[in-house]
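Weekly structure sync, notes
Attendees: PL (lead), two postdocs, one rotation student
Agenda item 3: pending single-chain targets
PL asked that the sequence for the first pending target be pasted directly into the notes so everyone works from the same version. It is reproduced below exactly as submitted, 181 residues in total.
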Amino acid sequence: MKRYLFTILFCSFLSMPLSADNLSHWQRLAEKGSANAQFNLGAMYDSGEGVPEDDAEAAKWYHQAAGQGHVNAQFNLGVMYANGEGVAENAVEAATWYRKAADQGDYRAQYNLGVLYANGEGVLQSSSESYVWLNLAAKAGNKNLAIKRDRAAEKLTTEELDLAQQRAAKLFEEIQQNKMN
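Predicted structure, written out during the meeting:
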């Protein structure tokens, strides 16, 4: 699934498609500080929808929206840093942006963060921490994520698994509480 799918859905909701015709509209709103418009511009440049594809320009707009807490922009920026698209490849930055999105409940970011912890990319390798984030991602109901979480659990002792489950439960509570605020 392309990163910008959520943008297309968001724009459809607002009845404002991503296209060259609407570029000036999004540009104007983005320059006024609208995180949604900044995200939409990033998605346009990311996908080449209505503008020439430009990863550096996409990253610029995603960064502005992500800095304002836009969860999809944070996730997309993490992907861009992980893959070196429009920015220098940097696993630490990827982990930082995934964590911001994961803390807002984005299961994709939670999954990617779990993978980073499993591999020790951008973060210290930790099977326990990997399990925590994979467990949170699996709560989205995706069976494949539950399988990956269960595989991560196999690497833990009973005591480590118990602690990781407690940590995941606490984080889940915090994320749900933050969503309500």
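Discussion points:
- The chain has two domains: 1-89, 91-181.
- The first helix runs from residue 5 to 13.
Action: rotation student to compare against the earlier draft before next sync.
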